[in-house]
Design a protein that fits this description.
alpha+beta, five-stranded antiparallel beta sheet, five-stranded mixed β-barrel
Length: 320
C-alpha cells in the first residue's frame, strides 16, 4: 500500500521546507565560531567569538575576560546560550565546539624582578658584588596591556646571617592595575678570580688572551685560588685545569727560562761599565731565581739571577 500525495501539494511542501532549511543553513554558514580569541580589555565581546555577525553587535560585552596572561575555555552550551540571547543564528555542530579566550598582557620578567631586588638590597646596605637567587625562577607578572610597565620593591626583610630575604614586589604602582607579590630568595657575595678561557696543555705558557676574570660565589672559590691575573699570565701550566674554573697556585709554576747545561749570556752592569760573557748553567732556573753558572772565560763558578730565557745577571757580591 502506498500513500499518494497530490503533486502540487507535495511540490509546494517540499519547496517551502527546502527553502526554509536552505535559508537557515545559509545564515548559519555566514556566521562562524572563532576557535580562539585574544582580548586586550576587561570583557569578551560577541565580535571576539563570532565572525559574520551584525557589526553593531560586535562590541557587545558578554563575559568578563580572564586575568592578564590567563586563559579560559567557553564551551558549546555557553556559546549557544549567548547566541540565542542575542538572536545570533548559530548553533553548535558538535559538542567539541568551543572558544579559547586568552587575555593579552605585558610581562614583567623574572630578570626585571631580580634587578629590582638587587637595587633594593644595595639600598639596604648589602655591598656589591653579589648575585640573587629567587625562590621561583619561572615567576612572571602579567599586567594589562594599558598598565604602566614598572616594578618596585615596596618592602624588604633581610637576614644578614643567612643572607635570605623576603621582598614585596609591586607592579604598576599607584594605578588601578597595581599588583603586589611577595617573593623570597637569597643573595650570595661574589669574588672575581682569573680563569682560563680555553684549554691549555701541561707545559705550555699562559698567554694574556687565554685568561680573564670571572665572578663566582665566594663560598665556591676554593682556598689556594689565584686572585690576581698577573699571577697567571706568563706562567707554565703544571696541571691542566678546566676552563672557566678558578685556578689554584699549584696548577701553575714559573716557566724554566734557563735549563741545566744550557749556554747563557752573563751580563754585569754597574754605574761605570757594562760587560757580557758566556757561561754554562749548572742548574735550572725560572725568572728571579739565583742559580750557579760557570763563566767560560774565567772558568769560575758564579751565582747569577735569571732575567730572561738563557740570560742571567751577574751578582758580583755573591760570586765565588
Amino acid at each position: 500500500m502506498s500513500l499518494i500525495v497530490p503533486v502540487g501539494t507535495a511540490f509546494a511542501q517540499s519547496s517551502n521546507g527546502g527553502n526554509s532549511r536552505n535559508n537557515s543553513q545559509q545564515l548559519e554558514a555566514n556566521i562562524l565560531l572563532k576557535p580562539d580569541a585574544l582580548v586586550e580589555g576587561q570583557y569578551v565581546t560577541l565580535g571576539d567569538l563570532f565572525t559574520g555577525i551584525d557589526p553593531q553587535q560586535a562590541d557587545i560585552a558578554v563575559a568578563h575576560a580572564p586575568q592578564p596572561g590567563k586563559q579560559v575555555v567557553l564551551d558549546y552550551r555557553w556559546l549557544y546560550g549567548i547566541a540565542q540571547r542575542h538572536n545570533i543564528n548559530w548553533r553548535p555542530r558538535t559538542t567539541a565546539d568551543q572558544v579559547l579566550v586568552t587575555r593579552a598582557s605585558q610581562i614583567i620578567t623574572i630578570d626585571e624582578i631580580r634587578d629590582a631586588v638587587e637595587i633594593a638590597l644595595v639600598d639596604h646596605g648589602i655591598q656589591r658584588p653579589f648575585t640573587v637567587d629567587l625562590s621561583s625562577e619561572n615567576f612572571q607578572i602579567h599586567l594589562p596591556v594599558d598598565a604602566l610597565n614598572n616594578v618596585d620593591v615596596t618592602a624588604l626583610e633581610v637576614n644578614s646571617r643567612t643572607q635570605r630575604f623576603v621582598a614585596s614586589v609591586t607592579a604598576a604602582a599607584q594605578t588601578a592595575q597595581q599588583r603586589t607579590y611577595r617573593i623570597s630568595g637569597k643573595y650570595y657575595p661574589l669574588s672575581s678570580v682569573p680563569v682560563l678561557v680555553e684549554p691549555v696543555s701541561r707545559g705550555q705558557i699562559v698567554r694574556p688572551d687565554q685568561v680573564e676574570y670571572r665572578d663566582f660565589r665566594s663560598e665556591r672559590v676554593p682556598s689556594g685560588a689565584i686572585r690576581d691575573i698577573n699571577d697567571v699570565i706568563g706562567k707554565e701550566v703544571v696541571r691542566a685545569g678546566t676552563p672557566n674554573e678558578p685556578l689554584l697556585f699549584r696548577d701553575l709554576t714559573n716557566p724554566i727560562l734557563v735549563r741545566r747545561g744550557a749556554l747563557v749570556t752573563i751580563r754585569l752592569v754597574t754605574a761605570n761599565m757594562s760587560l757580557t760573557a758566556r757561561g754554562k748553567a749548572l742548574e735550572n732556573g725560572s725568572k728571579g731565581d739565583v742559580i750557579r753558572v760557570v763563566n767560560q772565560s774565567s772558568n769560575k763558578t758564579i751565582q747569577v739571577e735569571v732575567v730572561a730565557e738563557n740570560e742571567v745577571r751577574a751578582l758580583p757580591a755573591m760570586s765565588q
